[in-house]
Write a structure and sequence with these properties.
The complex is a heterodimer. By secondary structure, chain A is mainly alpha-helical. Chain A has helices at 30-59, 69-72, 75-100, 104-134, 143-176, 180-209. Chain A has one domain (29-212): Cytochrome c oxidase, subunit III, four-helix bundle (Four Helix Bundle (Hemerythrin (Met), subunit A), Up-down Bundle). Chain B is mainly alpha-helical. Chain B folds into two domains: 10-77; 83-129, no CATH class. In chain B, 68% of the residues lie in helices and 0% in strands. Chain B has helices spanning 20-46, 55-74, 84-114, 119-128. Chain B is flat, with a radius of gyration of 23 Å. The N and C termini of chain B lie far apart (85 Å). The chains are: A mainly alpha, B mainly alpha.
């Protein structure tokens, strides 16, 4: 209590923390609180996807006489998409390492590659969608296809947002350097990008692999 | 003993380690395991090694294992004391995800099975028969 007079803020220093209810040392720093809040967002995003998965699983046999899963899905395409997204996720991790070392060149290269592999994934997915719509298997054909396009399209929309975010972060790192608030945004981006890969694991298993079982 | 650094008490999800080498190794191990599990998934789906009706279950198990690999090696969710907040949030998320998915699939499957055929369906059946 000898230093109580130096306490700068009410109840937020450890000298006065016994009655703040904020733990022994008061609130965490922003570099913890911001990514943690983003983690909560990512988890609620997964809850959103779980509802879409449940819808898909309920409607997968409601084909209304239209095409069924095994007629529509191509395993080779899915394998390439999976590899592209996994590589992208891995290189995103390398970008985080380069950023931690404050290496501008390698951070930019790694983020560019992350985005390029994500783009490859997106192009393959959109080509698949276009091919399905071209043979009359669009989202309006049956309940199964509606739920398929909602689930996989929602993931694709997330990837699109991620790509825009990667571009933004490349520009921000270039313009502002490795400042703490930029690093926080980069960490959130990497959490988001890894989470998209986790959701894709569920999609390629439940939708594509189980859908094309003999 | 001096006051511990508050930063050490908790860690943000996905936060890279301070050691560049261990961090790189973590990502490479994660990539290897993820590739392995993906490969096994595609292989299991295209051979008849597994008992037919069990393949779907096997694939789901492999997918859950791969999600675990991503969480541990890419997002650095560990069982360490600095990760308690992240793990608790994850546990709650997983609980809700399972409630929503299993609850929906269970209820909808039973509704489908127990639903009396509508007049239109009866009509269709008569036409087909």
């Amino acid at each position: 209590m000898t230093t109580a007079s130096e306490a700068p803020a009410v109840g937020l220093t450890h000298q006065a923390s016994e009655n703040t209810g904020l733990g022994h040392r008061g609130p965490q720093s922003k570099s913890i609180v911001v990514p943690y809040g983003f983690w909560l967002f990512v988890l609620s995003d997964m809850v959103l996807f779980s509802a879409l998965f449940a819808t898909y699983a309920s409607l997968v046999h409601a084909t209304d006489g239209g095409p069924v899963t095994s007629q529509l899905f191509e395993r080779t395409t899915v394998a390439i998409e999976t590899l592209a997204l996994l590589t992208s996720s891995f290189i995103c991790g390398l970008a985080m390492i380069a950023a931690k070392q404050k290496n501008m060149l390698w951070t930019q290269i790694a983020l560019l590659l992350t985005g390029l592999f994500g783009f490859v994934f997106l192009v393959l997915e959109l080509t698949e969608f276009a091919g399905m719509i071209a043979i009359g298997a669009g989202p309006q054909r049956s309940a199964f296809l509606s739920s398929f396009f909602t689930l996989v399209g929602c993931h694709g929309a997330h990837v699109t947002c991620g790509l825009l975010w990667i571009g933004t972060m490349m520009a921000q790192i270039w313009a502002k350097g490795f400042q703490p608030h930029i690093m926080r945004r980069l960490l959130c981006l990497s959490v988001f990008w890894h989470a998209l890969d986790i959701i894709w694991v569920a999609i390629f298993t439940i939708v594509y692999l189980i859908g094309t079982l003999p | 003993m001096t006051e511990p650094d508050p930063e050490l008490l908790n860690v943000a999800p996905g936060e890279p380690h301070d050691n560049m080498l261990s961090e790189t190794v973590s990502y490479i191990v994660g990539l290897g395991l993820a590739l392995l599990l993906t490969g096994i998934s595609f292989w299991v789906a295209s051979t008849s090694t597994l008992w037919g009706p069990g393949v779907a279950t096997g694939l789901v198990v492999l997918a859950i294992a791969q999600m675990g690999v991503h969480l541990v090696f890419f997002l650095h969710i560990t069982s360490g004391p600095d990760n308690t907040n992240n793990v608790l949030a994850l546990a709650f998320g997983v609980l809700i995800v399972f409630l929503v998915m299993i609850g929906t699939i269970w209820i909808m499957a039973h509704m489908n099975a127990n639903m009396a055929p509508t007049p239109e369906m009866m009509n269709l059946m008569t036409q087909r028969g």
